[in-house]
Amino acid sequence: MSKKQMTTFCRICDAFCGLVADVEDGRITGLRPDKNHPVTKGFACQKGLCAFDIHHDEDRLNFPMKRINGRNEDQGIFEQVSWDASAKEISDKIKEITSKYGQGALGVYFGNPVAFNSLFFPPLGSFCLQTGCHRLFGAATQDCSNKFAAGEAIFGTNTLHPIPDISNTDYCLIIGENPKVSKMTFISISDPIAKLKSAQKRGAKIRFVNPRRIESSDDGVGEVIQVKPDTDVYLLAAILCDIKRTGGFREDIISEHGKNLNGLKEFIKDYPPERVAPVVGIPSETICEIARDFMGAESASIHMSTGSNMGRQGTLCYWLVQMLSFVTGNLDKRGGNICLSGFIPAAKIGKTDVSNLFFDSPFGEMRTVMGCLPGNLLADMITAEKDPIRALFVISGNPLLTVGGEQKLRKAFKDLELVVCLDIYRNATGELADYLLPCADMLERSDINLLEQGMQPQPYVQFVDAVVPPCYERKEIWWILARIEKEMGLNSVLNQDDVNLYGHLNEMLSHSDLSLEKLKSLPSQTAVLPKPEVGRFFADHLQTEDKKIDCCPKLFEEAMKKAAVIFEELNNEPKGQLKLISLRNRFMHNSWFHNIEKLKKGEHTVNPIYINPNDADRLNVKTGSKVDISNEWGRITATVSVDDRLRQGVVAMAHGWGNSHTFGMKIARKYPGVNVNRLLPSGPGSYEKLSNQAHMTGIPVEIVPR
Ligand SMILES: Nc1nc2c(c(=O)[nH]1)N[C@H]1C(S)=C(S)[C@@H](COP(=O)(O)OP(=O)(O)OC[C@H]3O[C@@H](n4cnc5c(=O)[nH]c(N)nc54)[C@H](O)[C@@H]3O)O[C@H]1N2
Ligand SMILES: Nc1nc2c(c(=O)[nH]1)N[C@H]1C(S)=C(S)[C@@H](COP(=O)(O)OP(=O)(O)OC[C@H]3O[C@@H](n4cnc5c(=O)[nH]c(N)nc54)[C@H](O)[C@@H]3O)O[C@H]1N2
Ligand code: SF4
Ligand SMILES: [Mo]
Fold first, then answer.
1. From edge to edge, which strands make up the β-sheet containing 18-24?
2. Per residue in 235-285, pLDDT tens?
3. Cβ of residue 591 lying under 6 Å from some atom of ligand 1
4. What angle separates helix 284-296 from helix 232-245, to the nearest 10 degrees?
5. What is the number of the ligand 3 atom nearest to the C-alpha of 19?
6. CB 656 near ligand 1, within 6 Å
7. Neighbours of 202 (CB within 10 A)
8. Atom 45 in ligand 2: which residue has the minimum CA distance?
9. How far apart are CA 683 and CA 404, in angstroms?
10. Is residue 569 classed exposed, middle or buried when 0-12, 13-18 and 19+ CB atoms within 10 A define those classes?
């Protein structure tokens, strides 16, 4: 019997925790945290360790499957086909569709896990370039595309996102983020709560801004300032306004490194704390206290995440987050927000010219963000009369459950003439596919931790081999795309004698005098890089042509005007209007941990609607009551869980559920839950024009007991 241990890393969230897999006779027999990992040091969460269960799950897709019944039927009947046959049939169908309707008829939706696959984007680029596919959709427009759009406008690049220097900070403001549960995003930090705790122990003050008293603040870590959802932009403006009027703007720094400051001053002037307080639901004294603390601290840092991204004005929020840091002199300062390169000059890679971003479309003026159209227009672009999408590839994603408006998407999918899903499961979206192509999971793939370069408090790069080769006929995504290219008679790496998949990564590594070979020779195959230096932001990282931060990009003009309109709307909102927010927990990961029986226990067998006790009384419901939740977008029924963590007027539900029709995943179907995204807006007007980011938080809903 052969036994070995392989180091690997988790590719589920931004923390990239180091793991060790036990392998016996070519089979993975165990997975545990890597105590010897030089950076993540033995931390891993239960989801990461569940990669083992996913690897062995009997419901995994193991062979290419072809649908043999009509797509009008809810349940697919699939039969196994060979890779050769599926590649041939798919290629023929793509050719037929694109010659009939044009290249715009081919679309691709790629989901969140591709971000954790360093061999994904170049093969996708090749596939799209050669097939002419330019209708791209990605999970980022449900997640963070506002950050990319704001980065481009302010810093000239979408890959520059200064991170809070938690280990040195004296004050840390964390907005719309729940580190204990999510482990954070746009910063790669395993066990963030331990780091926040030790900062606090050192004397740092930590404040969360969230409508919910989040788990992160349990055990006395920081305090939560409970904000009304979808109002962060006004809170941030009010903090800045107060700092300005109390003389906290560092004019010396601003005049040296910034431009268009007047535009910023004009904008924040309209939102003094006293005016903003009732809209954000926070007393003006508390807003002024945040302002005072931020400018008074020796060093202050800030981080914002999906809770604010998903409001209607995520780009403006992220702009004001950067401004708060910059105008108080905390950008590029130890203990403030810092920037690092990682092993590549990360900020340079995303350099973008922001003139002429918008083009005319049947859906109004529109842009792409990092190549992607608004996910909230996917259904509309399929059902459009002119230039409809007719063939869709869904790669590592589950838009049916993760994008707003399942009903509309479900209907639109029926119009498609070809749906190809590349996934590790036959997920809810896969149920509507013509072809299901089985993919290798993270333990079956070699990789490097490319994603978070530039956002690691301790920069490092690790190479890992596949722990085992892909089981059955599972294949890596690059191979599948290349196989179809080959069949279509296009250039394909599969036609090359010597496939060098890591060529581009080796080139990147050479920036730090590294190579894959060199990494392989290091302990844990990891190069730990120098800790960040401060003082290089403006010279090295900032990508605007004039090397100035744009404090009020012209691009934001329309959105700034709209902010005033939304403010009035919020101000005049009917009293008692309930607002829906999302909620992550340790037992789910977007839509894809639902087939693991051990994660389905206690309250995690369903996704209840969490309601504040006062609202529950008013609605005359209690824990266990069934309620109908509805709005102009849809209607669902859910079970109530009364929860005093929520601010009054705010209700919360976990997304990614709703598997009653996911016939390929037995456990998921046994505990189906409901898809809260049936209540989210979709179509024109349901996303932020500046960034394509979908509106997903602070959604008005009505609730009535059943
Ligand atoms: N209401 C609401 N909706 C949300 C959110 C929210 O907070 N509230 N969050 C949004 C966010 S932040 C995101 S990122 C999106 C995510 O949206 P999506 O990316 O569309 O959905 P996921 O659930 O992440 O689906 C990932 C799919 O990838 C598959 N997969 C996992 N690993 C691999 C692999 O190695 N290879 C392949 N080929 N497939 C793999 C899984 O089986 C799963 O089907 O959801 C968004 N939707
Ligand atoms: N366990 C688990 N971990 C995950 C994931 C998961 O699904 N489950 N998903 C991963 C992914 S893809 C991502 S992108 C990250 C996301 O990481 P985070 O952004 O930390 O995600 P959440 O935990 O949903 O935290 C968002 C917080 O915003 C709050 N919120 C909602 N609306 C508003 C608002 O209008 N204003 C403010 N200020 N706060 C608001 C919510 O109460 C919630 O606590 O997590 C990753 N990690
Ligand atoms: S924290 Fe994220 S990267 Fe670490 S084990 Fe959990 S899911 Fe994986
Ligand atoms: Mo995400």
1. 3-9, 18-24, 27-33
2. 999 999 999 999 999 999 999 999 999 999 999 999 999 999 999 999 999
3. yes
4. 60
5. 5
6. yes
7. 11
8. 182
9. 9
10. exposed
Distance CA(529)–CA(515), nearest Å, equals: 14
Q: Are 404 and 680 in contact (CB under 8 A)?
A: yes
- Which of 117, 590, 629 for mutating ligand 1's site (highest number of atoms within 8 Å of CB)? 590
In angstroms, rounded to a whole number, what is the distance separating the alpha carbons of residues 419 and 516? 36
207 in the Ramachandran plot: left (φ > 0), alpha (ψ -120 to 50) or beta?
beta
Q: Which residues of 129-162 are buried (b: 16+ CB within 10 A; e: fewer)?
A: eebebebbbbbbbbbbbbbbbbbbbbbbbbbbbb
β-sheet bridge partners, residue 107: 135, 392
The pick from 17, 37, 46, 451 for probing ligand 3's pocket by mutation, whose C-beta has the most ligand atoms within 8 angstroms, reads: 17
Tokens 């609607």 sit at which residue? 609
Whole-structure pTM value = 0.98
Token pair for residue 692?
């394509």
Q: Give the residue, by CA position, lying nearest to ligand 2 atom 39.
A: 176
Give every CB contact of residue 355 below 8 A, 6+ residues apart in sequence.
none
Q: Does 532 have pLDDT greater than 80?
A: no
Token pair belonging to 421: 């899903």
DSSP letter for each residue of 76-130: --EEE--HHHHHHHHHHHHHHHHHHH-GGGEEEEE-GGGGG-TTSHHHHHHHHHH
The Å distance, Cα 201 to ligand 1 centre, comes to 36
Backbone φ/ψ region at 366: left (φ over 0), alpha (ψ -120 to 50), beta: beta
Count of H-run helices and E-run strands, the chain: 24, 27
Pairing of β 578-582 and β 460-464: unpaired
Name the CA dihedral angle for 435, 441, 442, 445, rounded to a multiple of 10 degrees. -80
For 302, the enclosing helix (H) or strand (E) is strand 300-304
Rounded to whole angstroms, the Cα distance separating 108 from 94 reads 12
321, pLDDT greater than 80? yes
* Type and span of the H or E element at 519: helix 516-520
Q: pLDDT tens for residues 665-677? A: 999 999 999 999 9
Q: Which residue has the tokens 């596939």?
A: 127
Radius of gyration of the chain (CA): 25
Residue type, 547: K
Contacts of 22-31 with CB under 8 Å at 24 or more apart are 23/467, 23/468, 25/1, 26/2, 26/468, 27/468, 28/52, 28/55, 28/56, 28/443, 28/467, 28/468, 31/443
Find out whether the beta carbon of 12 lies less than 6 Å from any atom of ligand 3: yes
Beta strands in 597-661 (DSSP E): 609-611, 626-631, 634-642, 650-653
Write out pLDDT tens, residues 146-198.
999 999 999 999 999 999 999 999 999 999 999 999 999 999 999 999 999 99
Widest distance between CA atoms in the chain: 73
**pLDDT category of residue 520 using cuts at 50, 70 and 90:** very high
Token output for 514: 């590294």
Check residue 602 and report its DSSP letter: G
| CA of 139, closest atom in ligand 2 | 12
